[in-house]
Structure formats: C-alpha cells, structure tokens
Amino acid sequence: MTTETRYTRADFQSGQEVRWCPGCGDYTILASVQSFLADLDVDREKHVFISGIGCSSRFPYYMNTYGMHSIHGRAPAIATGVALANPDLTVWVITGDGDALSIGGNHLIHALRRNVNLKILLFNNQIYGLTKGQYSPTSEEGKKTKTSPLGSIDHPFNPVSLALGAEATFVARTIDMDRPHTARMLEAAYRHKGTAFIEIYQNCNVFNDKAFQLLTGRQERDENRIYLEAGQPIVFGSDNEMGVTIGPDGANIVSVADVGLDAIAVHDPAHPNPGVAFALSRLSHGPSGPTPLGVFRDVPRPTYGDQMVQQIRDAQARNGVASIADLVQRHGTWTVQ
Question: Strand (E) positions, 144-290?
C-alpha cells in the first residue's frame, strides 16, 4: 500500500442510507472494506461488488463502486461472468451463510474449484437475519429458532472446511469486530490471483446476539483466538501458553509447557497439500472454543480466466482465425426456418 492515497473512506461511501439493524456487525465490515479500498489506492472503477440475497447482500448499494444486487445464491455465477468478461476488474462477492451455503451451495463450490479470479466475503452470523431468525446451514445443533422450536437437528457446515474441501487456493477467516485483522485478510485476498474466500464471523444482535462471545468478549478472546501467522509457531493464550500440534490424528491443542515449543506446528499456508489446513479448520467446528483465525491456505494455481484465454488463443492459432466468431463459424452455419 502507498503512504499517500487519492481516496478516503468517504470516497467509497455511496450516499445511500445504510439500513441494517443498529449494532449489526455488517456496519463494521462495511467500514473495514471501505477503509481498505481507500488505502489500496486503486481506481474505484476497477472494483465491482456482486451480492445475492440477505442482509449482507445490501452491500453494493453502500459502495461507491460498480456493483449488482443479484439473485439468491447466484452471486458467484454472475460474478464469474463479470470476471471473465473483464479481467482487469477486481470482482468482490458479498454473501451470507444462508445465501452461499443453502441455495447457493453449488455455485460457491464450483467457483472455488475452478479458481475464478473472485474475492468472496462470506458473512457468517449462523442465522437467517433478513427473514427474521430461522436456523441457517451454519447454526449449531440444538439451535432453537422460529423454524426449529425444539432445536435444530441439522449438522452445520464448517465454511472453511468446505472451501478447503473444494480445493480453494485461498481460504481465510476473520471477525467483524477485529478491523485490523480484517484489513490484513482483505489485503492478502486482494493480492491472491484466483478465488479468495474469507469467512467473516458477523454478529446479528437481533436474532443471534453474542454468538461469537468467546472470540469477542474481553474476558474470553485471548484464550480462544488462535491467530495463524505464516512461518510462526501456532500458539495462543494470554501468554502464548497454549499451542497446536499436527499428527496422524489431525490438529490438537496442547500446553506448550507440556510438549515444548519445538513440538508446536509452524504454520505454512503455502503448503501444496491442503491436509494440514483442513486439520486446522477442524479444531473448532464453530466459535465454541479455541478457533483459528487468519489465512489457512494461499497457494498458486492457474486461474480459470487465464486458462480460458489461452485455450482460445491456441485454438485460433491452430485454425488460422482472428476472432472467436471466425472460429465458431469456420465449419459453416445453419439457418433454421
């Protein structure tokens, strides 16, 4: 980032009245994104925000950039078209746990596996907020809501595990209230070429308040935030007294004093095998105990867009044609009466 920029956060505010419930975590995420883009100092016209349906999906209205409030669950598909049609743009997908993981599940996993050049921000509040408090694909088992008055019997998704299972090339997690950390995750995602997926724990203070208390509460957060830093031992706690080891049975939380610092895993998000990152994602299925935050995986792989362009160029060269239209029509066309 540059030290002097053309923009301030206000330059990325659209002037539309922001309509979320007072105290909603979406306000903090919006401020974090606007401030990050101002510091990035890239032309506003180079950013596009595509959303689906839900509270988070109002986001494009509040950004003074290009954008589209699209249809339920289909934001990754629409964003894919934008990214492939104009690869000079940075395309951001704004979605929620219901929008992305329920009706939009297939669109999400295929965008991840294809490695389309998208930046996907999944706001996870573990509830359906816009439709007034039904349980979502990330709600914990036993969650009592309007649609599960006796408690949900659904087993929830772990979004980070899901993204890693789809072989996403960049996967991270942050919290709405930790703006410096969110900015670092946005920066890393922006620099990544390919699909970058960030899960953002976001408080819904009306229908699921304090769902992330263990990670945000003053008395609890130091004991439960496991910050992942590349090249550093995975330790946490108020005095870094706890750590994480990786073994045949996965990732485990241990006392550093019991095993020694040399036994603690050193984080490597660039490892080509996603197995260790996946093991870290299983330390906590939700924010119910010590939970990893940061970049789980960041590896290079050719993007879908680059491969598509190269494939077309190769076909044009082999067939001696100058355009896609010539390539398609070279074997003749038909007129349907």
Answer: 170-175, 196-201, 225-228, 235-236, 242-247, 250-255
Q: Which CA distances in Å does 11 have to 32, 187, 302? A: 14, 19, 34
CB count, 10 Å around CB of 44?
15
What is the pTM assigned to this prediction? 0.94
Phi-psi region of 23 (alpha: psi -120 to 50; beta: other; left: phi over 0): left
Superfamily of domain 9-211+302-306: Thiamin diphosphate (ThDP)-binding fold, Pyr/PP domains (3.40.50.970)
199/108 Cα distance (integer angstroms): 13
Scanning the structure block, which residue is given the tokens 């007294």? 241
Both structure tokens of 27? 């306000």
Cα separation values, 156 from 21, 206, 309, Å: 25, 21, 38
Name residue, tokens 């595509």. 50
**Using CA atoms, how far apart are residues 1 and 235, in angstroms rounded to an integer?**
29
- Among 27, 21, 83, 91, residue whose Cα is nearest residue 59: 27
Per-residue pLDDT of the chain (337 residues), as tens digits, is 446 779 999 999 999 999 999 999 999 999 999 999 999 999 999 999 999 999 999 999 999 999 999 999 999 999 999 999 999 999 999 999 999 999 999 999 999 999 999 999 999 999 999 999 999 999 999 999 999 999 999 999 999 999 999 999 999 999 999 999 999 999 999 999 999 999 999 999 999 999 999 999 999 999 999 999 999 999 999 999 999 999 999 999 999 999 999 999 999 999 999 999 999 999 998 888 999 999 999 999 999 999 999 998 898 888 888 777 777 777 777 788 8
